[in-house]
Structures are given as structure tokens and as C-alpha cells.
Amino acid sequence: MAAHTSQSVAKAAGGDGEDSVAARGRSRRTDSAKQGGLGRALATHWYAWAMIAPVVLVLGVIIGWPLARGIYLSLTDANERNVARTIGANHIEATYTFVGLDNYADVLADPVFLQRLVWTVVWTVLCVSITFTLGLALATMLNREFRGRAAYRMALILPWAVPGFVSVFAWRFLFNRDSGILNKILDGGGISAIPWLDDPTWAKFSVVAVNVWLGVPFMMVALLGGLQSIPAELYEAAEMDGATAWQRFRHITLPGLRSVSMTVILLSTIWTFNMFPVIFLLTRGGPGDSTEILVTQAFREAFVASPRDFAGSATWGVLILALLMIFALVYRRSLRKQGEVW
Asked: What is the model's pTM?
């Protein structure tokens, strides 16, 4: 019995050894297969890799280096008085020091950050929601057959074709309190002039209106493309079943536009959150600081404040990037829960 037991134990041990050896062999084959697969992919698609390499390099230089530099500066006390600079023939070395996360603590503890964040969120939500609603309404109308549809499409796309700074300057002239066309029209109707850009409430209304005017063409074109991808047979079948126009819109149009809508809402949110030109060119963040958003505050720290605070500006920029990344991750997770792949 003892001999039999010892033989069984030896056999089991030998079997375990053989299994482990086989497992190691399979692991080596898997690793070599992976390496071989990567090598084959590089050998097969070398032309594609060669074509995208310059783009990756350029993006790394244009985006990667400034981002890394900004993150580094946000961890220092750099300003215009202690950075490296050249005055005439004299070169002054940089004397700023590493301060860690002190800048982030200072910015987050400053009530100005909360004020800018609240208005930035309100501004973004208002602009995106109004732009999406108007774009969807216009896209729905232009998706139908009627006389002069091409002309209407061209007219509605025109704000998108005009450079943004030109449009903003045109609107600044329209909003002028003394000689603006809008107040001239109101004056002709016996209504007193409105301080479009001189009153905090009206200034906020003005910047939202201009940004919506600039953003509607993109939203309309994207949603129009989505509408044209919905099969017409679905509408015909629903109409034959007695569905009303609202029911067809709710149960066919909106679900059919879900993927397009999610994408354009994400892009519009990111663009609006960082919409520097409209705020800066139209109101300069005023009156006072009533229309300042996060990105204009970062600009003010770097180019308007005295001394110019490069570390503070970089800190604001990194916080903006972090907020947008958090929003994108949460947005992506919510889409996945709804069954959307993004």
C-alpha cells in the first residue's frame, strides 16, 4: 500500500511538472506569436505607418511639447520677472523655483475660480442647448422638399463660412449703444436704447446670442446629414399606421439621430467651453469681469496681469483640460450605458 501510494504521488508530481512545462511552452509560443504578429503588421502596413509618422511627429511638437511645458510651469512660480529673458546684449537666466501643487491649491481656494467655473458651465449649457434646438429645427425643415431649398441652405451656412473674428466684430458694431443698428431700430419703434455690451445681464445675453449664431450652421449640417441617413420607409410605415407628426419625430427621428447628436453635442460642448474669441473680441470679459470664462481668465493671467503670471496661467489651462477630460469620460460612460459605442 505504501509503495502504491508513493508511486501515485510521484506520478501526480510528474504530471504537474509536465503540465507546468507545457504551460511555459504555450506562454513562450504566445509571446513569440505576439511579437511575430507585430512584426508582420509592421512589415505589411509599413507604408501606412510611414504616412502617419509625420502627422504624429507634428502633433507631438505642436500639442505634446506645449502641454508638457504647461504642466511643468504650473508646478513652478514662473512669472515675467523670473523667467529667462534677453535685454539688449544681456541674457538673464531663469530664477523661478519648483513649488509643487501650491498653484493648484491657490487657484482652487480662490473664489474667482468658482465664479468663472459657474458662468462657464452656464454659458456652455445655454449655448449648446439653444444651438442644438435651433440646428435640429432648421435641419428638419431643410430635409423637406420645397422651392428654393438650396438657397436657404447656402444662406444658413453663410455664418459658418465667414471668419469668426469678422463675425464678432460685425456683431460688436450691431450692439453699439449709440450707433448700432439694433438700437437704431428700437429707437425707431419708440423703445429706449439697450446697453447690450455695457450691462452685465445684457452682455451675457449678447455673447450667448453671437455664439449661437456662429454654432447653428455646424449643428444644422451635421443633423441634416443624420436625417438623410434615416430610411424613408420608416416614416412611410409609421404614417400608414396612423402615427402623428410628433409621434414620427419622437419615435423615428430622435432615435435615428442619437449617434450623430451625441457626437455633435460633445464637440460643441468642448468648443464652447474654450470659446475664447467671442468673449474676448465682443466684451473683453466685461463689463467688469461679468462675462469672463475660464479660458479668458487664463489669458488674463498670462498677458494682462502685472507681473504676468505664467505659472498661474498654466495652472488655469491644466485645470480646464482636466475638467474637459472628466466630462468626456463621464459622457462616454453614459453613452455606453445607453448602448452607444464611442
From this structure: 0.80
